[in-house]
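Why should sequence recovery work at all? Because a backbone constrains its sequence more than one might expect. Tight turns favour small or flexible residues, buried strands favour hydrophobic ones, and helices have their own preferences. The token representation captures these environments compactly. In the example below, the structure is given first.
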């Protein structure tokens, strides 16, 4: 049975991957912010409760 080749990630690739993941997280929060008013209306919740959506994300 042939030996599996191990792939290692370099420091530069790791930094880029972490930066992209952090950017996607920020993009996800920015995408939901304009919809908070409509979410509150549809779910019949008050203004303070709708902020829980951002905290839960």
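From this structural description, the recovered sequence reads:
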């Amino acid at each position: 049975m042939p030996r599996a080749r191990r792939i290692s990630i370099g420091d530069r690739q790791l930094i880029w991957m972490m930066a992209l993941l952090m950017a996607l997280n920020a993009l996800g929060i920015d995408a939901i912010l304009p919809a908070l008013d409509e979410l509150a209306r549809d779910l019949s919740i008050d203004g303070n409760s709708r902020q829980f959506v951002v905290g839960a994300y």
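A few observations help interpret the result. Residues 29-57 form one domain.
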